[in-house]
Design goal:
The protein has a single domain, classed as 6 Propeller (Neuraminidase). By secondary structure, it is mainly beta. A four-stranded antiparallel beta sheet has the order 1-26-25-24, with no helix packed on it. Strands 2-3-4-5 form a four-stranded antiparallel beta sheet, with no helix packed on it. A four-stranded antiparallel beta sheet has the order 6-7-8-9, with no helix packed on it. The chain contains four helices and 26 strands. Helices cover 9% and strands 42% of the residues.
């Protein structure tokens, strides 16, 4: 009898379809000012940034959340230097990286140039400021997302305005547009049809990026696209190659991906926004399959993602597709996935 019951349960599971890992979503903070980037240190310190768009704090652009309250980070003086901070990330050596795109709405990149700030979280002191030349962060560029390879001392970034993958050698500050003016870094959709707000034709180019665990591959996609790509990082780092030569090494990971903003890798799976469905998409790199996570609520434009030391995933909501009068407080969520 036990064997019969066991096989019955097994057959029901097969007929019912895939069994998803259990998920738990918890909102841990909110803000009346729009944030995008999120970074989590090894000691679970939480950092956020507020781009200088339409709705931002007057006294800071980057903050640490202390008992749920934002405090200017690393200090108010450095915050006065920021023009438009788009993202923050903590590397594996306990340094916070702050990406200032330096571009205000309807303006060219500031003459001071787009900048990447490195802050030592052990001392809370600024270690270095890297400046992108205007031949790399072009006047109309908007540097968006960033990943750091501390072993190779390389920064990987996206240009979401013009489309492009940019590299900076952190040993000498040299930067170059490794991929640019090719279809893979451009939006391939005509519009995104959002579940709650309808079609939107305001599409960005290359946006979300992530490094593989061994840093040998870079995953990337356009916000206005549904194709997930990968390219070997050693190809991007090879200054002797042309863009056309590097392009030959790009591979399609998923030709039926979802329009997304940021992404994060965890346990061989990429987690990212499914913007039109207003939820989180999990893509298994080894199986080549993806699905929406059953979260039980609409996620109003999951923007940036960070992974904590315990494996949980944090992400912000920026509600970009909503009109201002339709917006609710912007959220910071913690997602745990048991897989």
């Amino acid at each position: 009898m036990r064997k019969i019951i066991g096989w019955t349960v097994f057959l029901v599971m097969i007929l019912a379809g895939p069994v998803f890992a259990s998920t738990h979503l918890m909102k841990i903070a909110d803000s009346d000012k729009q944030w995008t980037g999120i970074a989590i240190s090894k000691k679970n310190r939480v950092f956020v940034n507020y781009p200088t768009w339409n709705d931002y704090p007057e006294k800071y652009r980057v903050a640490e959340l202390v008992e749920g309250k934002p405090v200017a980070y690393p200090n108010e003086t450095i915050n006065k230097e920021f023009v438009c901070v788009q993202s923050v990330i903590v590397d594996d050596q306990n340094y916070l990286w702050i990406l200032d795109s330096a571009k205000l709405k309807d303006h060219d990149v500031a003459l001071t140039g787009a900048r990447l700030y490195e802050v030592n979280l052990s001392t809370n002191e600024l270690r270095h400021v890297y400046v992108f030349p205007r031949t790399v962060a072009l006047p109309q560029s908007y540097l968006n997302d960033v990943r750091i390879d501390t072993e190779r001392q390389m920064a990987y970034l996206t240009d979401s305005a013009l489309g492009g993958i940019i590299l900076m050698d952190l040993r000498n500050g040299e930067a170059w547009r490794a991929l640019t003016d090719i279809p893979e870094v451009k939006a391939n959709l005509q519009e995104i049809d959002f579940k709650s707000t309808g079609p939107n034709t305001h599409l960005s180019q290359s946006d979300g990026i992530e490094l593989s665990l061994d840093k040998s591959q870079l995953y990337f996609t356009a916000l206005g696209g549904d194709i997930l790509y990968q390219v070997p990082t050693n190809i991007l780092c090879d200054r002797s190659l042309s863009v056309a030569e590097r392009q030959k090494f790009i591979r399609i990971v998923n030709a039926k991906n979802v329009p997304t903003d940021g992404m994060i890798l965890r346990n061989g799976r990429l987690y990212m926004a499914n913007l039109p469905d207003e939820t989180i998409w999990e893509y298994d790199l080894s199986k080549g399959t993806g699905h929406n996570l059953p979260l039980g609520e609409n996620i109003r434009w999951a923007d940036s993602f960070a992974r904590a030391s315990d494996g949980s995933i944090y992400f912000t909501t920026s509600e970009i597709n909503y009109k201002k009068e339709q917006r609710v407080p912007y959220g910071l969520y913690r997602l745990t996935v048991d897989n």
